[in-house]
Every structure is written in C-alpha cells, then in structure tokens.
Amino acid sequence: MNRTAGTNGGAGAGAHARAGSGRQIRISGGGYTAEIASVGATLRSLSHRDRPLTATFGADEVRPAALGTGLLPWPNRIAGGAYEFAGRSEQLPITEPERGNAIHGLASWLDWDVVGVAADRVELATRIAAQPGYPHSLEAMARFRLGAGGLRWSITTTNVGSAPAPYGVATHPYLRLPTGRADQWRLRVPAHEVLDVDEDTKLPRRLHPVAEFADGVFDFTSARPIGPQRIDHAMTGIEAEGGTTGVELFGPDAADSGVSLSWDPEALPWVQIFTADVPDHPELDRRAVAVEAMTCPPDAFNSGTDLLVLDPGETHEATWTIAAIGEAS
Fold this sequence. Notes:
The protein is mostly beta strands. It has one helix spanning 300-303; strands at 2-3, 18-19, 22-29, 32-37, 42-48, 51-52, 70-71, 77-79, 82-85, 88-91, 101-103, 113-118, 121-128, 138-147, 150-159, 165-167, 170-171, 174-175, 186-188, 191-197, 204-209, 224-225, 232-238, 245-250, 258-263, 270-274, 289-294, 308-310, 315-325. It has a ten-stranded antiparallel sheet, with no helix packed on it. It has a six-stranded antiparallel sheet with strand order 18-27-26-23-20-21, with no helix packed on it.
C-alpha cells in the first residue's frame, strides 16, 4: 500500500480529487467498487458488479443523515449533550437541535488524512482533540478493503491522552436494493430485544423482548417485509453463529438477491435499525435501511450500559463487513 500525506493525485484507482465531501478515493476488488470521501472517512458508495449495495450522495453535496460515516467517540444520542464522567459534569454541543441531543460523536465532519492507498484498499487517519464536553485526545484510523467477501471496514482508536476516556463506536451505512423502497423489502435482524424510545427525543426508555413488544412489529428474527413500519430503534440479544452475526435485506420475493452487514456481536452487541424516514431528503427517504452495529446503546455516556473506557495508551478496534447476497454475488 502506498503511503501518502493525502495530496491530490491523478485519475484512476487510488486517485484523489477535491470535492465538497473532501478527497475522493475509488477502490475496487473482488467484483466490488467503493467510493470513499475523506470528510468523515465516509463510505460514499458501494456496489457489486454494478449493483448498488448502499445509498449514496454526490461528492459535492453535504452528506445527508450521517450517510456512511463513522460514529465516534460515541454512536447515537446523548441526552441534552450532558453527562458525568470521572466526577466531572460535561456539556457537549447540541448537534440534533430539533431533539436537544448530541448525536453521532465528533469525527464525522473532520477531514481525515488519506495515509495509505492501494487499488483495493485505503486508510484514513484523524485526531480528535481534547475539547469542551470531551476533554480527551484520541487518534483514529479507518480502513476499507475490498475482496471476494465484500467490503471489510474497520475503525481503530487509541487514547493518546493522559486520563481514561469514555468511548463507543459504530458506522452508519445505508443498505439498499437496486429497485423499490423499504416498504416492499424483506429484513432479517437476529436480535431478540429492542429498546423502546421516547418519540420526541428518540432516547431509550426500556428494553423489551421483540416478540412481545408492540405486537411484535420489531421482530425480524426471520426475514419478513418491513411494510409501512417506521423503525429507528436499537436492538440487542443478538444471535451469533461462529462468532459473527448479520443483518440481511432482500427484495419482496424469496429468490431475490440482497445485501448483508455482518460483525462480531461480542464486540458490537447492539444494532440500530433506521428505515431512513427522512422526508427532507426525498432521494433517501425510505429508499434504504441504515444498519448501525454499535458497541453500546443510545445515551450510554449516561446509562453506562456497555460503555467502553479507554485507558491512556489503550487501543480499540471494531470491524464490519458489507457483502452482496444471492445470484448476483
């Protein structure tokens, strides 16, 4: 892999071109093609043999709805942006003003450095500086690699500060099929518990068995149509097979091809499913399903549930894989 300081290059695989979403890196391998944008170390698009697997946006657009970015040092929401850690009260900027929360961490609008490129892979790096509300210093590396098994996407983070730091991580890809909308697609989520949320704030209230809560509308343990159901909920109690699990999205017929996101549920015991109910973005609205495998649930900085604490010098790594399913794979 070539190492680079992130300077602009020529056309072709591994080339860099400046755009509103930062440097653009196109990689290919195993029949897959991905476009990575440096702002937010964002997966801007992924396809397999010209079949789109994820939603996309234009290189010069402002990225909508956290599409394809990494979520760190926390995924999802922190109530009021306020929390206590190590005996100190902290206040983060409110980045979801309509609900009064801090959402999706501090790295998604940083312009990450492109530090390594090859035809089938790219590495980007950034530093989250200690700041009001999060007085901790982190260094992070995002790696994207394509092969016959799909896109392997990892985020590695090290606490380079002098005190323990609260931490959580996820990614925010929107899986999609070539035609139709979420209402017609079939979804499988191997999770047996779901967090009830306050409809105004989208903050968690209680954990319920999916088979019992709300007449089972969040029970996708077997693939079934999404229908008109609006989903923006975190789930856990995830089944694993051979150390991995996966969410799968298919067309309306049993023979339809699909797309999956898989991960290690021991490392990432939560998954947020979002049916892209974003009418302000009609090109995305219910035309994809966000699948966010997470280390912790929403508001973990307050609840402490599955919250990670990185000691000085400690490193954490999480990995996700997106792959095509079916005859086109």
